Request: fold
Amino acid sequence: MTRSQTIQLFMIASIICFLAGGARAQTYIAIDLGTLRAGSARVHGVNASGQVAGASGHPHGAETHAFFWEQRGGMRDLGTLPGGDYSAAFAINDSGVVVGTSNTSTSMHAFSWTPSQGLHDLGTLPGADASSAFSINNRGQIAGASGAHAALWTSGAIQDLGSLGGQTSEAHAVNNLGVVVGVSDTFSSPHAFLWKDGAMQDLGTLPGDISSRADHINDNGMVVGASQGSGGVRAFIWTSSAGIEALDSNPSGVYSEAFDVNNAGQVVGEVATALGTRAFLWTSQQGLIDLNESVANLPGNVVLTGAFSINDKGQIVAFGLKSPKVSRHQEITADSHVHAGPTRVFLLTPQ
Reply:
C-alpha cells in the first residue's frame, strides 16, 4: 500500500468515526428536584442558569405552593398571595424572576416573584376580577390572561390583547421580542394565535382538525403547540415561511403536544405511546426521542411522562412517576399518579 493510499484510508476512517459520533443520540444526567413536603411536584420552566419553577403539594393536590429551585439552595416555597392557600409558578426568566398564579381571599391573581421582594400581585384588567401569568421574557414582559382575554404586562401596565373574534383568549408565551402566542376563540372554534405590534394572527389548524393552541414561541419566531380533530391531538410547529406543520409525520399515538422550543429549534413535550404518555425531545435531525431512553442515570422506578421546558443550553425539565410499582418498560395509565405514586420533577442536563 502506498503512502497516499494509507493517508486516504486514514481520512476515510476518521470521517466515519466523526459521523458515527455525530449520529449518537444526546444523553442526559437527571437530578431529582424533590418536593416541598411529602407529596408531589409539577414543573413548568427552566432558565439559562438551570433555575427551575413549578408547584408542589400533597399527592392529591392539597397545600400546593409555587416553588423556585436552584442547585445551590434546593427547592424554595414561594408561598401565596395574602388570603390564599394555593399557588403555582409557570415560568422563570434569566434574571430569576418567577411568574404564576395564586388565589387570594376572593379570586385567582397573577403574581411575579423575586428573592428580594417576594410575591407581587400583578392585578387585573379593568373590570376583571381574576388573572393568571404563564410566561415572562428577559425584558420583564409577562403574558397571561385576565378576565376573558389574553393579557400582556409591560413595566407594570396591563394590556388587553383582544381575541380572534370569539369571547375568550389566553396568552401562553412571550418571546424576547415581545411577540405573544396563545389560544383564542374564533367564530367557530379555538385557534392558536400570534400577537405582534397590536395585531392578532390566526395560526389555523393542521389539515382536517378543528381547533389548536400555541404553547410557546422562540426568538426566531418558531411556534409550537397542539392541533386537535377527530383523529386526536397532534403536536405542531409553525413558522412564517412554512405555516403550520405536524411535528412528526407518523406520531406513535393519538395524542402529542409540544410545550416548549428553544432558540436552536429543539422541542419538548409529551406523546402517547403503547406504554402510556412519555416525555419527548424532538429535533429536525432525529425526530421524536423518548427521553426515558436518553437519561443515563434514570432510576428503574421512574417514568418520565412529560417535558415542559428546554433552555438554550439544552437543559430540560420533565416530570414523571416515581414508585416501585412503575417501570419505563411497562404501561402507565393516565391516572397512574393516583394508583402508582406521586409525580416528581427532574432537571435533565446534556452530557
Residues 3-23 form the longest helix (21 residues). Residues 1-23, 334-340 have pLDDT under 50 and may be disordered. The chain has one domain: 27-177+193-203+250-350.
